[in-house]
Backbone:
């Protein structure tokens, strides 16, 4: 009996150690390597859809207090700092509260002047190349069709944005001067994105608030069905988006 009891105690101890090791490994990966995020809004359509799940590389921009769970205030600034490039899709903490996760495309670097005129971005006085490539139809059928444009930044990074027509909200803005140590982010769904153009809500993104760079989707699912409709899951998965790289 004693031997059986000791074996049970040993097995229980092994189980506890395994769980502790697993938690520590997961915490290490989440803090220093990759962190999963989900997309709750349509501000990055067509690049990112509601219901997309992606991995963000934490090491791309180095580490700040926002790299840690609950944004533990262990230090200020960044360690092993990496510099975002134009066109990066970045996750960051909303500057106004330091807590809410936002995801936008970096279009402006420190020292840049940014302005939007008639829906076209001007970087340091030069218009960003934009060409019409077609019409976008929402795969979930929730939004009206929009024109799709292929936008190409000065460094050659190219991606698709949506435009719902002239004279939309934030189609014409003042000139923004990006301060040192800050970045300017915009959503690809230009007429439905609260981003750096709205200074009171988001504004310039401090380097310290950067969490990481979006790398690839690992799962995607339509949000049309109720969560308890389990039998719908195989039909609601967007299989063509699984493990899709992001740019």
Residues:
């Amino acid at each position: 009996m004693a031997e059986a009891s000791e074996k049970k105690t040993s097995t229980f101890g092994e189980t506890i150690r395994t769980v502790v090791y697993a938690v520590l490994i997961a915490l290490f990966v989440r803090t220093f390597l990759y962190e999963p995020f989900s997309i709750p809004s349509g501000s990055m359509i067509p690049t990112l859809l509601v219901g997309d799940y992606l991995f963000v590389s934490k090491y791309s921009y180095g580490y700040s207090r926002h790299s840690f769970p609950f944004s533990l205030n262990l230090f200020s600034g960044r360690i092993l700092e990496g510099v975002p490039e134009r066109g990066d899709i970045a996750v960051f903490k909303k500057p106004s509260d330091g807590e809410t996760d936002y995801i936008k495309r970096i279009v402006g670097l420190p020292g840049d002047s940014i302005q939007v005129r008639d829906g076209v971005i001007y970087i340091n006085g030069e218009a960003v190349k934009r060409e019409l490539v077609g019409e976008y139809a929402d795969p979930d059928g929730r939004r009206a069709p929009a024109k799709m444009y292929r936008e190409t930044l000065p460094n050659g990074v190219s991606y698709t944005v949506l435009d719902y027509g002239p004279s939309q909200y934030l189609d014409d803005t003042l000139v923004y001067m990006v301060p040192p140590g800050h970045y300017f982010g915009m959503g690809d769904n230009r007429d439905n994105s609260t981003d750096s153009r709205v200074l009171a809500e988001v504004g310039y993104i401090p380097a310290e608030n950067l969490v990481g760079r979006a790398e690839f989707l690992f799962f995607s699912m339509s949000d049309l069905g109720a969560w308890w409709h389990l039998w719908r899951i195989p039909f609601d998965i967007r299989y063509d988006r699984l493990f899709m790289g992001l740019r």
